[in-house]
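Hey,

Quick one before I head out. I ran the complex with protoporphyrin IX containing FE overnight. Inputs first:
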Amino acid sequence: MNNHPLEGHNSEHSHHGHEMSFIRRYIFSTDHKIIGLQFFFTAWFMMIVGGLLALLIRWQLAYPDSPVPLIGRWLWPHNDGKMTPEAYVATVTMHGSIMIFAVIIPMTTAAFGNYLIPLQIGYRDMAFPTLNMLSYWFIWPGLICFIASYFTQGGPSGSGWTAYPTLSVIQQAAPGSGTGQTLWYLGLLFVGVSSMMGSVNYLTTIINCRAPGMTFFRLPMTTWSLFVTAILQAFALPVLTVALIMGLLDNLGWTAFFVPQNFDGNWIVNNFTRRSAGGQPLLFQHLFWFYSHPAVYIMVLPVMGMASDIIATHVRKPLFGYKPMVFSILGIAGLGFIVWGHHMFVSGMNPSLGTAFMVATIMIALPSSVKVFNWIFTVWGSKPNWSTALLFTLAFVAFFIIGGLSGIFMASTPTDIHIHDTYFIVAHFHFVIMLGGMFGLFAATYHWFPKMFGRKMNETLGKLHFVLSFLTIFIGFYLMHQVGLLGQPRRYADIRPLVDSEASYAIMLMNKISSHSIFLFGAAQLIFVFNLFYSMFWGEKVDKNPWRSNTLEWEAPSPPPHGNFERTPVVYRGPYEYSHPAASEDYLPQTHPPLPGEEQYAAH
Amino acid sequence: MYWQKILWTILFLSVPIFGVASFWVCDMYGALWPENVSEIYGRKIDHLFDVIMWITGIFFVGTELLLVYAMFTSKDADSSQKADFVHGNRTMEIGWTLMAAAILVFIAFYQIPTWSQVKIEKPKKPADAHITASMWMWQVRYPLWDEEARTPRRLDVTQPALAESFELVNELHIPARETVLVYLTSRDVIHSFFIPKMRVKQDAVPGLLVPVWFDAGKPGTYEFYCAELCGPGHYMMRARVVVHESREAYNRWLRDQTQRLREPGGGPEIASDNAGDTLTHSVAQAH
Ligand code: HEM
Ligand SMILES: [Cu+2]
Ligand SMILES: [Cu+2]
């Protein structure tokens, strides 16, 4: 198969469409849509795994003294069915690692990225289909490492998703720092390779394979954001890879990049001189956050892009400020590379450096706020259809505002001293990634489901799912701000009692409310899972463009066949010409030939 | 469709309402901030908290209401009107960019002096204590009392294990109403020294010796604990700060401890029931 992006046309696809075996077609497929769906289902599955771990964490925070229902007596018989501290830190670690590296990043970049990029730019596949297939199969060794770590002697890693040395590199330091930690490093390395393959592919595809007329400034925001995300991946990931390899070598006891001088077995004997020769634990933090700060934008930029497309489509109005939206994505990405030190204000890093990182971090709130205003003014004067996809997207906006504003408290160095490593941080990043990002992904699922399966998800169930999720998750996570300000630290297996805190009672009460809200949230997701599978087989059948959307993916049949388009689409305009006065309908697809007098309405 | 619009508007209105109300209720019951016992540093930090809380609070309510208002005033899905055909507005874009930039620049520069004071401009005074964190305890080393000079001896923080000092576990004694300077390090993994009521936090990193300064205006006993994941026992790494009435009272305490140490078979008062049994001590506090 010759799939070089620069040659061949979409018409050439049908030659090898038929003879493919089941395995080539659905398992080792090189079709971007199948690969996208493979990522989609894998990530939703890992979401369930990570979500169950989260429920365990919430149980422990609310009822540190009670056995875990159902599974406690079976898993921790020697501890009366109560979770052990070892199990708690392992749970926190694996919850974070799975959610970030096996759910959100694969879901945003790999699942929706794969599915949507070729369709939105009007091409038949990714530029490198085989590489694309490999990128899917490379996450499996990673996932297997994660899962296997549960069956090692000390259990999975217990050093947090951030894996700070020296806890993570001294095998004797904690039960999870042994084989479990080694597997964690290996797992992440595999997942990283997968991301890198994806990112190279997306960049090549978007740069080279756009349909005639599809200029960069006619790209839908989803593709724009995936493009910028791929750049972030390409530049930040090598640094994480280096850090992981160094950590792995240290962990195996072969090197001492992150272990300070005079380490001899179990204890670090510290003579407080700063002679050379020793390693430096802070080095890992710098390398890690140099990747992981951009990584938080890797998680959220695609969601911002998808949210922009979904809002415009469902409120039937052009996206407000398309170019400012593009430039703010670029601004976030650029600034995202120089703010990593905000995770290290009290790490022992030179505090003067903290001031510089503080200024850069505060400035990153600027493009974020520009995006928020543009979304709000897209809704202004619009004509919403109040679909589930729209509601989830609006909720994404409402919650992202909270996450962005709490970021200001943490970006301010003096106030971060108090809230660093407390539940305030947990609240912040769940508001951006979980309540923001996940809600965006729910929206994307409701929105693009008809393209994937030719059927719509049930709207009634969708709205029920939305209302229940919205209220439970909002209350559940919002109260974490308060307990964080009160000083409740992260990653404590037992938070009782914060001894001299007159607020102990309030802290426990709020933790209980949080936990119960989040249990309800978990239950509400059953509606979603049911809806997903039910609609896949029995949902309402729809035509290829049920939302009356402008972008190219809706020109292809649903689900699109191998090769996507019957004819290479030709693009005449930007993606957001909804409610055009000169058009008879309230939408004007990018492929629709120019209308008489259309120019005079063009965006400026 | 009209009722749908009303319903969703109300639902989204719950965000600013619950957001503000829950903070307000917590504040009313004293369940928003730990008491602030610091008069010099912690107070400045709380002032910044107040400023940022007001700014972000106004923005929070403002933008959420703007979103709700936009939803509420949107056109009905079954009306014959089309949505407004608007692609943006350059004046508005420039306007809100400049407004946000001005506020952010203000926040950025307004806090710089405080940060310098709490983390950069190290007070010029001898070290009051040297703290070594390890799994899962805090070893606090104090200078011995010098009876001739009537001052504490000089604590050589680069050689803390040597003479001229004594050690307590999980107890940090400090005088009230003055800047206290301690040096922080770790013997094994990264820990973090956190006294919520004094708004101070600093990681203890193996291989680094980091100065930390803070103050307490109000005598009493407060909690400090570890804020950086340091293994399964992280949650029990809790300890006490004992704030003495005054410098004089603190010096008297140092002298007592020193004398006790000199007595045959003596040792520092509190260390005796801690030493070698730190975990039980922490656990006793934790439960
Ligand atoms: C308005 C923009 C934002 C600002 C100013 C901001 C600021 C910060 C700061 C200063 C920290 C470090 C706090 C600390 O550890 O003491 C932090 C942590 C974090 N942020 Fe943000 N942030 C912003 C947006 C985001 C977004 C969009 C995401 C993800 C989608 C995100 C995800 C995270 C995560 C995961 C952490 C915590 C990492 C950890 O310690 O485990 N942030 N943020
Ligand atoms: Cu960051
Ligand atoms: Cu700790």
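The pocket of protoporphyrin IX containing FE (ligand 1) is lined by residues A 162, 296, 299-300, 342-343, 361, 364-365, 368, 404, 407-408, 410-411, 416, 420, 425, 428-429, 432-433, 437 (CB under 6 Å).

Talk tomorrow,
K.
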